[in-house]
Amino acid sequence: xxxxxxxxxxxxxxxxxxxxxxxxxxxxxxxxxxxxxxxxxxxxxxxxxxxxxxxxxxxxxxxxxxxxxxxxxxxxxxxxxxxxxxxxxxxxxxxxxxxxxxxxxxxxxxxxxxxxxxxxxxxxxxxxxxxxxxxxxxxxxxxxxxxxxxxxxxxxxxxxxxxxxxxxxxxxxxxxxxxxxxxxxxxxxxxxxxxxxxxxxxxxxxxxxxxxxxxxxxxxxxxxxxxxxxxxxxxxxxxxxxxxxxxxxxxxxxxxxxxxxxxxxxxxxxxxxxxxxxxxxxxxxxxxxxxxxxxxxxxxxxxxxxxxxxxxx
Length: 313
Known about the structure:
The two termini are 35 Å apart. The protein has one domain (2-311): Porin. Helices cover 7% and strands 54% of the residues. It has a 14-stranded antiparallel beta barrel with strand order 1-2-3-4-5-6-7-10-11-12-13-14-15-16. Strands 8-9 form a two-stranded antiparallel sheet. The chain has 2 helices and 16 strands. It has helices at residues 2-19, 154-157; strands at 54-63, 73-82, 88-99, 102-116, 123-138, 160-175, 179-186, 192-193, 203-204, 208-220, 223-234, 239-250, 254-263, 267-276, 280-289, 300-311.
């Protein structure tokens, strides 16, 4: 009973603190979105690299708003882990995010350093990711309306344009064997991506701030529950919050989990998955939209696969 009371208090404090920051309205972000963010926090926070005692590979495939033409589609792959003899870590990831006529590909490398700060095993990590982003505009998918400015040659506008620009993110991560709290900033340079001269609007990369947290507890040798959340803020836009609850059934050779997630005033999600032999991982999530766009799509699907290597520390 004490375990349940303690867990409820911690989850309540975390949820209340995050809910105080919920905006009335929500707006889409520039960086890729993942419903199963809790299984690969490294994509959202470079400080996570090196915090585990093994290397792991994760891959995600997300199809958003199935049924709508040119709806967002995202794929990613990442690998990260610790140095064997130092409190450091490294990682790398690649993401490709496509929405209609635009797409962006990020290739990033990461360095992180962590240290113990209390005798009870609480540690803190800091990390930096640096790489580049390729931003593409497929002009063949642009539909030029009657108000199209005649000063522009349609043959030029319909061509495919590609821009390559540097990208960077930084993060901090406080963690132990039962909780974690992370803070990260993305698209630090905030540069302008300019395909054409005015009057066509320019596209500026805006900085994103992400605050995440999670707490989990073993109820007994076969049951584990976890609560997690993430708060996203893009400069110049309202904040967005996601809350998640997950239950895991633990066995010697496999673990099975199920959970529910709420993206505030955006979507409700169900999560299912399995870990086999503490090495192979498969996860699936399905989103039901809460917005008016739900009339025109049949939901969003996301698949996650992973592999965990042997312990090296």
